[in-house]
Amino acid sequence: MRFRILGPTQVLLADGHEIPVGGPRLRALLALLLLDAGRVVSAERLIDGLYGEHPPRGAANALQSQVSRLRQALPAEHNAVEFHPAGYRLAVDPADVDAYRFEQLAEVGRRALADGEWPSAATVLREALELWRGAALADVADVGGAPAQAARLNELRLAAMEDRVEAELALGADATLVAELRELVVAHPLRERSRGQLMRALSALGRPAEALAEFEDARRTLAEHLGVDPSAALAAIHLAVLRGEERAAAEQALPSQLTTFVGREAELERVGELLGERRLITLTGPGGAGKTRLAIEAAGRLDGEVRFVELAGLADGADVPQAVLSALGLRDAGLRAPAEPGRHPTDRLVEALAERRLLLVLDNCEHVIAHAARLTGRLLSACPALRVLATSREPLGLAGEALCPLSGLTLPPPDAPALDVDDYAAVRLFAQRAADVAPDFTVTSANVEVVLRICRSLDGLPLAIELAAARLRALPVAEVAARLDDRFRLLSVGSRASSPRHRTLRAVVEWSWDLLDDTERRLARRLTVFAGGATLEAAGRVSGLPTAEFVDALTGLVDKSFVEMSGGRYRMLETVRAFAAERLAEAGEADQLRRAHAAYFLEFAWTASDHLRRAEQLHWLRRLDAERDNLHAALRRATAAGDGSEAAEMVAALSFYWWLRGMRGEGARFAADVLDVLGSEAPPGLVEEFALCVYNASLAGSGHLPSLGTQGSVIRSLDRPPRQPFLLYLSGISTGPPSGGAEHVDELMLELRRLVGPDVWINALGAMGSGSAQMWSGRWDRANAALVTALDGFRSAGDRWGSMITLGALGELTAWQGDPEAASAHMDQAMGLAEELGSAVDQADMLRTRGEIRLRAGHLAGARDDFAAALLLAQRSGAPEFVAGARLGLAQVARLRGDLVEARRLSEEALTGGLTGWYVGEATRSEIMLVLEQITEAEKAGPGAPPSADGA
Fold this sequence. Notes:
By secondary structure, the protein is mainly α. The protein is built from 43 helices and 13 strands. The strands form 4 sheets. The protein has a 6-stranded parallel sheet, with helices on both faces. It has a 3-stranded antiparallel sheet with strand order 3-5-4. Strands 1-2 form a two-stranded antiparallel sheet.
């Protein structure tokens, strides 16, 4: 049995079935016994807890009666409640009580945090906190002794939450963490640790002004409630924010490493020097030479912002710009509108990096070398403060490229004294990795010659040495050397077409492969179907091995360095993966595994799509982000194989995800490729999927596309409820607003309800569409009612996206109705949701909108702050359309304040800097020209003339 007191008291059997315990007094008795599980609790304590200071006459008999009833409620075979002369004992393992389990895990997590083991600490503390279902002892709060225990447990919970946040801050702050910390600070405004963590997270995300505002709020709160100043620790965080220290630490966005870095001192020094002198440095060398590890180590030693881009999982070089966008946290469009037609992700990158000091690490360029070189050349020519550190088996071939070739680690010369071998990196690496699997192993005078023979035969290649060292778990070092000698003699008569170092690495991979058992080899080759790694569940499902065999084989592959496990995901090094993929093809399993992989991730995509419209939206967005390479690989393979049905389903399932992540261009390319397979008409049974392919393809201005007609005709063509309700929004974006206005929207919703029945999210979407149409028709009261209904619906469903869109519309509506305070409040809430969804583009857009609201209300200082913040966000997001709007707003503020020189400068910058090409429509250009005319008129009127408020 398992017992729960972190929330309402519960008893569960091993199969999860709950055993009803009875009324409040019986649950109280059980809770008192559980608080001392496995120990004797005196009858006096139990009576006091059950009956308080005034127990009834015959309380001892009453207690015996309650104990008897509790025994009857619990399964007889467990005989859980024991009588002792001193009282009663619940004979259960404390580990089966959630409170005990929580305290154990919290302590393990706290120790891991103290040791700097951030991933482990975060994982364990999450597991501990997931045990909670509400307040501790929630249904027995009035039992004697329970309030004190509940307070203790609740305090431990808060401490564990702060410990977990501390670990996640060390791993990298994100908007979700900020939202969680805000809730924690509101609930516990006097806890300085949470407040300090919120300040650090905000600063790390580039929002120092908000972090400083939090400190001022903490100062006021502490003074009002406790009459004290912030602690020295919180003051130190305040100072660090002012100095930008948290931001600098957060921007070292490099993968964490599981092992120590060995050797390469000379190469590290050379790369460091080159990064100070040149803007493009490429580390070249064969697979397994340690290029990635050296790049991470060199980048980690630099001050300033660093971003790491992993290209190994890309199957198509056209995806390189999108991979860089994702690594930088950028989007090619906001949450409220489609991308500009014809715009390429590279354009967004150029805008975002034009004035940004950044080191971009492009890892594993060799298989997309042409596209990586083209993007690198464009960025370096347009972004003068940018530097690029690339790793590749061949140079990028660009002018000004500095090469740093890598070979093996240093080896002792033949006549080196045995006592000095530890001075050489190849030997040190072998010794360290061998000790990882065989803790007693050291290099001694007895085995030094054998170790040297191994390292020399492997040319000092790090990956080859690590694979060989991993074998010391099962083989003596002399046996490893002997088997390698045999393998190299066998291969010496083989092909000499490849380079010596390539032959060496391939030989050791093949040797390691041959030492795997059959099940390990089967699993290793099947894991190559994954792109970007796999979770335990995905690997088990797709590999098709029986559970027991799968777990044993995966454990063996990790032990033997064939597979790495990090952050809950299993990955293969590319060199090993390429070798194992050849074995998959030889086994004739490639198509079978492709289909299994596609089936698993199609199911995953549909499951995630449903959750994206609910309160779990952010969690599932992160899960989809982690599996993006796999999802896109499955889609690309299905398209290449001509499996149009499967590919169209994947497009449909991913449509809302692509929109929420601003991946319009990438989604459009995928959809257009699928349409090439499907043809010009929807195949039977794929009406919805075909429509979604057309709508997605249209978002990036693709060429000639099949005609689908109006929204109404698409809805009427469906023979079943839409599996992807986002179809309704995409159809509106693609076809434009209905010609009949709000009445037409309402008619569409009636048709849809007949098809799908009641659905909270779809009804909210319809109300939002109706409210927007009413708003643009000038029917403000009806618009307000519809938008409030939509907001209630989206909030009930838990969808932040719909809530954000509706709040933005309500903000504009209330501004038109002359209520700037209410309008600003709506925009504040909308911006908070945009932040949670990770869209700085939308935050910039809404800051600009709020600035316009304040400008019209005459709040010039607030308007200027909003426009300035919007400008910074838009520049950093690579969104020139909003850069122009923000500069126009600043120009309006300057004009109304009488600073005509500044107003003209800003207007001209907006006209030339943000309106090049097709980024912004003629409406914005016209506004800027109007403001310039007003400035000219004011200049003619001379000093002292009141500025015109027209156009503000």
